[in-house]
Amino acid sequence: MPLRLPDKLPAIDILKHENIFVMDESRAHTQMIRPLKIVILNLMPLKVTTETDLIRLLSNTPLQIEINFMKLHSHTPKNTPIEHMKMFYKDFSVLSEQKWDGMIVTGAPIEQMAFEDVEYWQEITGIFDWARTHVTSTLYICWAAQAALYHFYQVPKHPLEKKRFGIFPQTPLDPLLPIFRGFDDVFMMPHSRHTEVWRSDIDKVDALRVIAEGPESGVSMVMAREGREFFITGHLEYAPDTLDKEYKRDAGKRDDVELPKNYYRDNDPAKGPLVTWRSHANLLFNNWINYYVYQETPYNINEIK
To answer: What's the rounded Cα separation, in Å, for the pair 109 and 50?
Structure first.
């Protein structure tokens, strides 16, 4: 089944060229199906890029999914046209009146700031609290994962000596968990961050469970509330060229920028990236939708609690 997306969303044309079946709202209304309702709080600067990355992965399921985009009232994006935000995004105050089968909260380029210094900290923690009673399962990605771990469980973040940048191997610690159905013994995950959470801090919290980690990248996935919350410190949703664009952007501004590890063919930017994470990215999002959203959410969405 296809994804139901807002009419004229830029991602629709991009994904159709990739032979991904998407359906705009006008056509979807002709089908008598109860779609899964997913809301995405997109905090990344390049909204269209992140929209496309997530929609691409959410399309890998036989279920019909309706996607909605949430924006913050207390923050105005600087890198996305205001017309795009007005057309495709709704304030939390509007979307909070509904219940949702699933929610995704993205990362944000503010990880070196103290959480309380973030201009929208009060609003976003209110959204985190709301999600616990209005969403069946929530994926928190990168900065959002650190922020939610701090807000709910007082897990601090710690600065890294240098940016963790590249593609790093991860090991599932409980391969029988449904989120890892079909995974190999080791899988690769993109990372791009200046801070980290420590296993020693997480292990002090009985409600938290580290479910994947890597020898160099550290904790990569944490689960809570039997899968109603997942905290992912990396970026499995990244497109093949995302780290390449980030590297070239920063290399043009500073002379201390290192190559992303385990990313370029023969470690040579001229040869382009070697994609090693795409299949597991599709598996993870498909497993999340199937086992933690579809099989857990009530048919009457208003019964979520």
So the answer is: 13
